[in-house]
Design goal:
Length: 589
Amino acid sequence: MTSCATTSQQDNWTQRLTGPVYLKASDYLDKARQADGDAKLLWQLQAGRAYAQASDWARTEDVLKALRGRLASPEGQAAYQLLAAESAMAQESYDQAGALLKAPLPGDFEIQRLRLSSKLAELTGDTTAQLQALAKLAATTNDTVLKARSADRIWTLLPQADTNKLGADWAPWLTLQELARDKRGPALKSALDDWRQLYAGSLPAQYLPKSIEQLTQVTDYQPTKVALLLPLTGNFAAQGQAIRDGFVSAWVESGQSAQLVVIDSAQNAVAAWQQAQAQGADMLVGPLLRPQVEALQQSGTVKVPWLALNRVYRPGFADDYYFALAPEDEAAQAAEEAVARNARHPMLLGLDTSTNSRQAQAFIDRWRQYGHNEPVDMRLFSNRQQLEAGIRDMLQIDDSKARIRQVESVLGRSVVAEARSRRDVDFLYLLGDREEVGLMKAFIDVTISPFADPIAAYTSSRGHPDLESPAGLRDFNGLSFTEMPYFVAQQGPALAMRELLGQLRPQWPSALERLFAMGYDAARLLPRMAVLRVAGTEPVQGISGSIGIDSNGVIYRRLKWVNIKNGTTQVQDHVIPPLPEQDSQGQTF
């Protein structure tokens, strides 16, 4: 009987130490005070897990230090090792975390180890390692919900992986990827039947990603005549012509079989569309101006697939799409980058303008989608004169100086001390144009203590310096910004198009080049719009960004990240971190 009781208690502790943490750390510490022996230590360990769940890593480390070498039970040692690895990851000690997660653990602790291994690989950008950890996780667990979540995550990550590093056991996944890329509708459904027979028993065959099932219901648009409505005369003629040139360039390159009709919509978009209808148009691209898009929506005359070149969402129309170079997309991307960098306290800073307000809200909305419900530290100032004082206040430099003066008053003598900036801010997003961002960057550089680690500073394509100016790069040192591949790609189609346009339109300002890239990508999107609307579909790599479409038909872009360091630029791809999900036990996955 004693043996059975001991076994039951051990199993109970295994369940506790691998399951969700429901109580506050103080509650577990109360339990520890009422216990003795190994149970006392295990309740303290639970308190450490509660601190970790609350992202209180300082107290987590206190618990780990207090328990180091004292846990005798195998389950206590395994849980301690996992908590230490999690804390190391939070503090970006990735080598230490990797060493702690290297060896397999017994029972359910192995599932937790594989979860953390997947997260560590995500943080270090090792997609291959993340895929392998997820595959092992799916093979180890008996939780069908967790298996399905793992399969969906693998499918999402697969386009980012170097397939040459994946072994022969990945053939089911890679073959499925080829099918989804080449087929859809009834053809895909038929091909999937053969694929299932060939790879019966494999993870993707048992837990087919949701997007694959959706693709069996999708067929590509096959128009015979496409109408392109743009302002080719009047105040917006230059913008319309830039989009037209980009669209036609991609249209000719792709060898489209449909006929293209370009119509000037400067005076009346509804009349222009009626003209296109009379010519037999069965797909519409444009117009560009927001009032004209709204006028066409209100007319109710567009009954064909429609790619509007502005973001004026009309609910309930499955064949409507909306493409714009929206600054909000870049702010959402910055929030994703903050999540990927494990930031906890982002700060948004800029002038109080409509564009900045929209960008700030897009950042906050995206940030909250990742489970961050705490308020984001944001201040938008009414004029530039308030910026310096505002920055000093937000970084709490004046508070630091006040504390120094207080110490001097108590001691009755001067104190040699440097005013230090607050240390909780770990991601700074600067909203504004080049001049405004430059001003904020200068204020921040002289405000932050030289003894403190610099705060990671980011901005959008609106705010970066002239990349051809050494002085500009020097003044913006340490800043990271988003930019479309057209301007920063060092190889491939984007670079080739930039060099060609530089010869053909050497006097064009960058604003028209951006619209050219938008028009180019709009033409490339047409054949794939219906497919891209399916969640989880591999995005199109355009010259204006990596392009996807949400379930409402709103087209979004993810741009390149450019880091300025020591007068040079480094270009990196952006990886969208997966949204947090929960398994059947309520644990975040």
